[in-house]
Amino acid sequence: MDTGKKTLIVFSGDLDRAIAAFIIATGAAAMGDEVTMFFTFWGLNILRKAKAPRHHKAMLQGMFSAMMPRGSQRLGISKMNFGGLGARMMRLVMRQQHVMSLEELMASAREQGVKLIACRMSMDVLGLAEDELIDGLEYVGVATYLGEADKAGVNLFI
Amino acid sequence: MDTGKKTLIVFSGDLDRAIAAFIIATGAAAMGDEVTMFFTFWGLNILRKAKAPRHHKAMLQGMFSAMMPRGSQRLGISKMNFGGLGARMMRLVMRQQHVMSLEELMASAREQGVKLIACRMSMDVLGLAEDELIDGLEYVGVATYLGEADKAGVNLFI
Amino acid sequence: MDTGKKTLIVFSGDLDRAIAAFIIATGAAAMGDEVTMFFTFWGLNILRKAKAPRHHKAMLQGMFSAMMPRGSQRLGISKMNFGGLGARMMRLVMRQQHVMSLEELMASAREQGVKLIACRMSMDVLGLAEDELIDGLEYVGVATYLGEADKAGVNLFI
């Protein structure tokens, strides 16, 4: 339903799903909607800086962050990734087709005022500190997401 | 909420998720709802013809379509597929249990007037031409989906 | 939209997605919402008893249930599972971070009155009998889910 607001939970850290999420978000924002994207679990990898300050992490907590992709440029696709080759192909075809790249979509989302919020609990579990993620985020709990969803007419889990 | 309308984004091209999507769609249509299914990315494979006219495609653009499954009969399941064996087993058990096959569900959806719309941008990225997909689709952009979602009370991303 | 009711379709049987589903469900219940979780396909594995009565099953029907994880303790994570090691790591880090385990979240959901309903058709396809699942469930068809979703303002597919 149209309430002028939409929310997306971005759980997945796959390039293809991230692109879908940001196309929906920027499309809705272009139509005048307020959009909130709640990044949780693997979806946080989309927001990682390629080069982040080093942190001394507890061993277990540091293992996920050490092995997960550092930022949007390193994401794989959910099918036919072939060790990153599929992701590169998808990026190339998108450029040929004059489709915005994930990074351009992310920049466009921010210019249009899409609100990006990061799940604090997932950050703790995956061992990601605030300064390892891109700037301008809010760090929140599930209650904040639920409050936004209660105002929105379209809510998706991606 | 009940607005008499529901939408489904079908992003996944897995047999099990496709079945779930069409069971929800046909169930809602049987209860009198207007249903729109928006096929994007791998979900487009559900709509491919098994035998389609050949197209001369740019090399990169043709690579995805050459490697992706051609139509509903060739989809794998998302877990325990074992090179297609799992999908065959699931089809067999469904027949034993008198559950409609994916193809029967798709036919039923169309008879009941479920609207099938295909994401034009994804078709371009994956190298799929209109005549490679089943007939009777509309080819649209994300704005069309968003317009439908704004009228619907239940919107899912599958 | 806030109608005081939310529904979640739990299609996935991955530990990480199950945790996300129950965090959303218990969070919403804590805020006073009525919550219904509809378990279908692999999501049913979350509800399996670790030790269930043996059933004589038709060969094909028994194959899925024989190979699928028996209950919440045996679920893998959707990324970096490494044969169960990833799931164990995630559980350990969650305990260190004082996040509730999946089993605690499930108990909390039930205490708060979250309604758990299981898809009868999926049970038949995957060969799961009622007494192989935890107690207190309702066994329903898609029409029951759709009726609940029609009353809910937030509906997610996980």
Main sheet properties of chain A: 5 strands, parallel
Order of SSEs of chain A: EHEHHHEHEHE
Radius of gyration of chain A: 16 Å
Q: What structural class results from the helix and strand content of chain A?
A: alpha/beta
The parts of chain A where pLDDT drops under 50 for at least 5 residues are none
The global form of chain A is: globular
The spatial strand order of the largest sheet of chain A comes to 4-3-2-1-5
Into which percent range does the helicity of residues of chain A fall? Answer: 40-55%
Strand proportion of chain A = 15-25%
Q: Total number of β-strand segments of chain A?
A: 5
pLDDT averaged over residues of chain A = 95
**Biggest interface pair, residues each?**
B-C, 29 and 33 residues
Oligomer: homotrimer
Distance between the termini of chain A: 19 Å
Number of helix segments of chain A? 6
Explain this structure to me?
- The structure is a homotrimer of 158-residue chains.
- Chain A is an alpha/beta fold and 158 residues long.
- Chain A contains 6 helices and 5 strands; from the N terminus they run E-H-E-H-H-H-E-H-E-H-E.
- Chain A has helices spanning 15-30, 59-67, 85-96, 102-111, 120-126, 142-151; strands spanning 5-10, 34-39, 115-119, 138-140, 154-157.
- The first copy, chain A, has a 5-stranded parallel beta sheet with strand order 4-3-2-1-5, sandwiched between helices.
- Chain A is globular.
- The two termini of chain A are 19 Å apart.
- The mean pLDDT of chain A is 95.
- Chains in contact: A-B, A-C, B-C.
